[in-house]
Specification:
Number of helices of chain B: 11
Strand order of the largest sheet of chain A: 6-7-8-3-9-10
CATH superfamily of the largest domain in chain A: P-loop containing nucleotide triphosphate hydrolases
Distance between the termini of chain A: 53 Å
Order of helices and strands of chain A: EEEHEEHEHHHEHEHEEH
Number of helices of chain A: 8
Structural class of chain B: mainly alpha
Structural class of chain A: alpha/beta
CATH superfamily of chain B: ABC transporter involved in vitamin B12 uptake, BtuC
Largest sheet of chain B: none
Strand content of chain B: under 5%
Shape of chain B: globular
Number of strands of chain A: 10
CATH class of the largest domain in chain A: Alpha Beta
Largest sheet of chain A: 6 strands, mixed
Radius of gyration of chain A: 19 Å
Order of helices and strands of chain B: HHHHHHHHHHH
CATH architecture of chain B: Orthogonal Bundle
CATH architecture of the largest domain in chain A: 3-Layer(aba) Sandwich
Largest interface: A-B, 37 and 31 residues
Oligomer: heterodimer
Helix content of chain A: 25-40%
CATH topology of the largest domain in chain A: Rossmann fold
Number of domains of chain A: 2
Number of domains of chain B: 1
Amino acid sequence: MTNAAVVQISHLHFGPAKKPILDGINLELEAGHFLGIVGPNGAGKSTLLNILAGLTQPSSGHIDLFGQCLNRFNRHRLLKDIGFLHQLHDHQPRLPMYVRDVVAMGLADYAMPWKRADHREAIMQALALLDMQDLADADFRLLSGGQRQRARLARALVRQPRLLLLDEPSAALDSVRQEKLFQLLRKLCDETGMSVIMVEHDIAAISSHVDSVACLNRKIHHHAMKGEGIPEEIWSAMYGEHIHIMAHDAACIGCGPADQKPVQHHRSGHQHD
Amino acid sequence: MIDASMHLLTDFWASPVMREALAPALLIALVTATMSVMVMAHRLSFLTVGVSHASLAGLGIAVTLALPLLPTATVFAVLIALLLALMPKKKGISEDASTGILFAGSMALGILLISTAGSAQVDLFGLLFGNILTISANDLNWLNILSGLILTVLLLAGRAWWSIAFDAVTAEASGLPVGSLKLLLYGMVGLTVILCVKLAGIVLTAGLMILPAACAWLWGRSLFTLAALSIAFSLIGTLLGLIWSYAYEWPAGATVVLTLCLFFLISWSLNWLKHRITTS
C-alpha cells in the first residue's frame, strides 16, 4: 500500500457562477482511504461523483487521478481503474441475463470482442464478496431489489478498481446487508489499498467504518478526520432550518461502534409541534 | 398429407425463381435477426418503423435523379437514422416526436417524387411490400456488401452495445464512448432497414426488425440464447414464409412477416399458459 494521492481535486467548480452546484471543492485522498460524503438533497454529491467518473465536465478546476490529470485524452485509460455505482435505475433491466453476465459487464476489457468475457474466477470472486456466489446462474430479472443492488456492486468490484465511487450503495439493502457492505468496503480498503468515495445520507451507519467524512452542500463545509466529530454549526450550515429533523448525533469518525453515542434526533432550533 | 408436403417441397426447390430467392432471403433473415435483438434491447422499435418509411424519400430521390435505387436509399436511410440519433439532444424534442416528424415528412416527399417520376419507371408495389423474387445481380451484390458490413460491426461492437443497453451510465463511466457507439448503432439500423426493403418492403420492414427478437425475448434467459433464438425464429420464419407464399401464390414479404407474427402469437400464448400453471 502506497501513500500516493489517488484523487486530488483543486478549486473545482460546476454550474453557473451566480448559483454554482459545486463551489471551490478541494479534496485529497490517499490509497486505502475510505471517504464518506454526506449532505442534503441537491448538495452536489452525485455531481461530484459524476465528475470523478468522467461523466460530467467541471466548469473549472483540476482533477488528478492516480497522479495524472483527468482529461479527454487519458479519460478512457484512467477510468479502467475506477469502479462506479450510480443511483439511477438500469436503462433496460428486463434484458435476459444471468447474474454472472451482469457482473462480467464490469470487466475492464468486456467490450473488446477479441478478449474473453467469461473470466469466471474473477466474476465468482466478486460475487463471493457480496455472498452471491450461489446466484451466479440466476436470472437477473427475477432478483429482489436488494439482490440486484448487490449484483451491481459486484459489477463495480469485478475489475478490482483502485478507486470505487459509490452513490448511495445501501439503497434497497436491509440493515444487516448495509452493515456487511460497509464492513466489506473497510476490509477492501485495508487489505487491497483500494480507495472509496461513498455518498450516504445516514452518518450514524457509516461513521464507524470510514476514515473521514466530508460535509458537502455546494462546498465542503467540513472534512472530519478519524477521531473527530462534526460540529453542530456545520449541520446547521448544511441543513438550515431543517436541522431539527436530522438524525446526526453520531459521535466520532472512524471510532468503533462501542465508542459511538446512540443516535438521537436532535431537536434544537425551531420546533414544530 | 406427408406426400403432399414432400411434393410441395420438391416443387419449391425445383423452382429456379425460389432457389435464387432463398439464399438472399435467408441472409437478410440472419442479419435482421441479430440486429433485431439490439433494436429491442435499445428500445428502437419505433425508430425502425420511422427509418423504413422515411427511406421512401431516398427511393424517390433515386428515381427522380436516375440514381441506383438501393445505394441511394441506403445513404438516405443512414442519414435519417443519424439525424434521429442527434435530434433529441437539441431543444428537448423527444425521440418519438422527431421520428414521427421525419417519418411523415420523408414519406410525403417520397410519394411526391415517385408520383411525378411516373409509375412506369418504378415498381411502387415492390418498394412498399417487397419482392425478393425479382432480385437482380446488382441488388444481390449490394445485399452481400451491406450484410458483411453489418455483421462485422456487430461482431466488433456487440458487447459494447449490450453494455450500453443494460446501463449506459455505467458503460460511459467505464470508459466506453457511448455517444459514438450509439451513433454507430443508429447507422447500422439504417443499413439493416434497407437490407429488409427487398424482402419485406418499406411498409413491412419493421416486422422483420422487431418480430424475431420479440419471439426470442419470451424464451431467452441469457444474451446468447436471446441472439441464437432470434436467428432461429427469423430463419425458420423466412423459410416457411417463402414455402407458403410459393404454395398459395401469396406475396413473399407479407407471408414471411405473417409467419413471424404467428410464431410470436404461439410463443406469447405458451408463455401465458406457463405463467398461469406456475402461479396457480
